[in-house]
Fold:
Amino acid sequence: MDARVPPAAEAPSAFVSLVPDPRRRLLAFALLMGGMFMATLDNQIVSTALPTIVGEFGELERFAWVGSAYLLAVSTVMPFYGKLGDLFGRKYVMMAAIFVFTLGSLVCGLAGSMNQLIAARVLQGLGGGGIMVSIFSINADMFEPRVRARYQSYSSLMLMAAGAIGPTLGGVLSDVFGWRSIFLVNLPIGIIVLAGLALILPNRKPDRKPEIDYAGAILLAGAVACVVLWADGSQLFGSLLSVGSAAVAATGIAFAIAWVVVERRVAEPIIPLSLFRNPTISLLLVVSLVSGAVGIGSVNYIALFLQTTTGLTPSQAGLLFIALTGGIAAGSLTAGRLISLTGRYKIFAMISTTGSTVTFLIFSTLHAGTPIYLIAMVMVLQGLSVGFGQQVPVVGVQNATDPRDVGAATGAVTLTRMAGASIAISIYGAVLSSYMLGQGVDIPGVASIDQLTPADMAALPAHSQEMIAETYTRAFQPVFLSMAGLIAIGLVAALSLRNIRLPTSKP
Structure:
């Protein structure tokens, strides 16, 4: 059935942009994209510099926490920043997030030990989470619903560009100027964005009395932190099913229950529970969860599959990802413009989830020695699928939410996407490890297959390389099937959405 919004909701006269002047609005949007690029780039740029950092500080056992600490902090503060923007206006909340992130970058660049660097990454994340949520919320204030879809696609391109050039830029800066430069490069960008937003972006202060839900914020942060820590359980405790992992999971459940109890009683909850009573929002959050699980969580595993089954070097595998990022760019821009023209977004959620399901079913059938051009074609299909649905959850949830709660709702979308990625990475890792250990293949010249680097594999005899490729191919089949199963859940949610038409303005 074609479920249109009520005529009053389609009236174009009610929406008033936060920045009415078109040229000033585009300049403000460009500054926001600079902030998004900075925050997104920082999580990617570190990867290639980590070996250098470990070489200086040692403490290899804390290697993973340089990235995990940032992800943990980002995830825990996203809903809090969204609510603060609803209560106090988004300008100064956004500026505070940029200031904290820039300060954290400075502290990272001056760190004298691994512990100091990890603590500084937490500080960075406390700002980075606010930047991501505030940008999407400010876009909702600047652009009417249909036009917003097009600009959200540009935001998606910025996320992709940061992911594409981050590792390469990190390696170059680390080699030429030292690893500290990968953090200090954020200082001029942060200062320019901060000064520009202070001059250009007005502050629309809500006409409501600010009441901060401190208890709800702490409980939700605790629950989210437990999810991320549990997702890292295999590194922290040796297994997702260990006593330590179970204790973290139980603590997270307790925090979540207590959070629900608190949110029912406060006047201004961090995430209003009424959002979850709206079936459109609930279904879109499911789509967001699985899109994070597959769109973000699968990347490292696809890279590992390419290097272990095709013999590609890390740099060659990185070049092959151009097919994926190119597909995302094409799909995101196309969907953004079509949503803007038609006002329909359900069809793009269906195309996205269907395409990703088919993609990973195809991946599960690939064998060692599959021609690279065929793998590239599958990666293009996956990129198109991700791009078509990338902005749907944000646009749909913002349209279905009371304007008073757009920030909180946007925080919920970004949080579910990050949570989906964290949980899925652990699930995929557990499935891969289980099937690798279960095969028990004895490969000549290989003591432990899971400790082989691409360089080690290249040095082995051709017969041993073929055996390794076949072993990984069999182990990856259930991994790709689990990815297809997860995204199929999102497909069911997408099919269940009402075929809502976005209004030309939001009353």
Residues 1-13 have pLDDT under 50 and may be disordered. Residues 213-267 form one domain. The chain is about 75% helix and 0% strand. Residues 462-496 form the longest helix (35 residues).
